[in-house]
Hints:
By secondary structure, the chain is mainly alpha-helical. Helix content is 80%, strand content 0%.
Amino acid sequence: GFNGPLYFLILRGWIHLAGTSEYALRFLSLMCGVLSVAVIMSLGTRLFNRAVGGIAGLLLALSAYQVWYSQEARPYALLVFLSLLSLWLVQQLLEGRTNRWLRVGFVVSTALTFYCHTVGIAFIGFVGVLVLLAVPREKWKDWLGLFAAIALLVAPAVYQLVVTPPV
């Protein structure tokens, strides 16, 4: 279908560590769901204040879809986690932090959203528009290399999807 291979590759390694029980298979999604709550709390706190971060975390933790995705052996909780992580890293970079690892993390987490699910390509576009709107025009050049790296990482999967589209 429209799911990319990332979750299933991670799950394959996870099975070697945790086994094949229903609990073990679903625990991977549970970890992604819990980490998503932590990331959105941090993002909300950094963008606004501690109260907003706490409310954002509470709303995500109580979201019916988030709870559902965190209980299934499917890639959706991983997609939410990678998307939130990417946004958290964008926020760090927009604040002027120039750590190389933040840039690498941004490129990798953003590109991996597409390897998790094809809707990730829309997310990549969203992040691009967000950056264009948030960054002054004279600093766009600084971000061009990051988005070029994302495009290079995503290109093989896009090519494969075009050559052999899902049925």
